[in-house]
Write a structure and sequence with these properties.
By secondary structure, the chain is of the alpha/beta class. The chain has one domain (9-254): NAD(P)-binding Rossmann-like Domain (Rossmann fold). It contains eight helices and seven strands, in the order E-H-E-H-E-H-E-H-E-H-H-E-H-H-E. The chain binds NADP nicotinamide-adenine-dinucleotide phosphate (NAP).
């Protein structure tokens, strides 16, 4: 199947580690021009950029901070100056809050309202800001693919703080509205909802936990970042002819890991 991605310009946000890094590499293997963003780890981003180029793509590293809307605009403008505009947006960057995935031990009423605002602002309004920054160019070229990275937590919930799951569920509404709004201009918008994914950024998970979680999935295995990346590449490519406004659940999404977050 031809993904029609050679020389397409792809912006993958939050691409230093995990699903974003794997996605950037996967687009690189398709010969795409991949702009990848970092927030605090430029060196990691450069290593992923090297991988993209070694795989046959081209790479550009830019900074983007979901908590600083000007950097979202600047990142899109930098890509446009360099390559003439973004064809494919993968809105993957995440503000976890704290040190990583949400802590299920935190009680709802102990999450300050400022933290709610910060999480919704970064992870939902931040996704809308990424879309706003690239949409005019896609409309002008009458072709675009947008993939918003949500989480199974959006549907399944998670004991503990709600802001992460609430922000991620908001991406569903964003995708549905945008699918109608932009579809006539050849732009397809979808959500990928990964479940518990084994990534290079996640602290080691005991084998017994992996086995238990894997046993709760249809395929009896947890996804790795590469599995999610392949799905994102399909949705973000010309191989996706007319699928839009959908939420695609990764195989791991059936495995519930409330004690580990994600
Ligand atoms: N891993 C899972 O099991 C899982 C499950 C469901 C959904 N997801 C979703 O999948 C996506 C990727 O998850 P992951 O586990 O692969 O993430 P990750 O490895 O923790 O990487 C997060 C990325 O986001 C960047 N980032 C952090 N804070 C940011 C901010 N404020 N502004 C902009 N960028 C920021 C980081 O850049 P720096 O390194 O430069 O700081 C990094 O590139 C997220 O949207 C997440 O919600 C993940």
């Amino acid at each position: 199947m031809d993904t029609e991605l050679r020389d397409r310009v792809v912006l993958v946000t939050g691409a230093t580690t995990g699903i974003g890094a794997a996605t950037a590499r996967a687009f690189g293997r398709e010969g795409a021009r991949v702009a990848l963003t970092y927030r605090g780890n430029p060196d990691l981003a450069r290593k992923v950029a090297d991988d993209v180029e070694a795989a046959g793509g081209q790479a550009l590293v830019v900074r983007l901070d979901l908590e600083d809307p000007a950097t979202v605009e600047e990142a899109a403008a930098t890509v446009a100056r360099h390559w003439g505009g973004v064809d494919v947006l993968v809105a993957n960057a995440v503000r976890w809050g704290g040190d990583g995935p949400p802590d299920p031990g935190v009680r709802f009423e102990d999450v300050p309202i400022e933290e709610w605002r910060a999480m919704i602002d970064a992870n939902l309004v931040g996704a809308a800001a990424q879309v706003r920054a690239v949409l005019p160019g896609m409309r002008a070229r009458r072709w675009g693919r947008i993939v918003l990275i949500s989480s199974s937590v959006a549907e399944e919930g998670l004991p503990g703080p709600g802001p992460y799951g609430t922000a991620k569920s908001g991406l569903y509404g964003l995708a549905r509205a945008l699918a109608w709004e932009a579809g006539r201009d050849g732009i397809l918008v979808n959500v990928v909802a990964p479940g518990f994914t084994l990534t290079d950024s996640r602290p080691p998970v005991p084998a017994a936990v992996v086995d238990a979680l894997a046993g709760a999935t249809p395929t009896r295995r947890l996804s790795g970042a590469d599995d999610v990346a392949k799905l994102v590449v399909f949705l973000g490519s010309g191989a996706n002819g007319n699928l839009t406004g959908e939420v695609v659940r990764d195989g791991s999404a059936a495995a519930r890991a409330p004690h580990l977050g994600g």
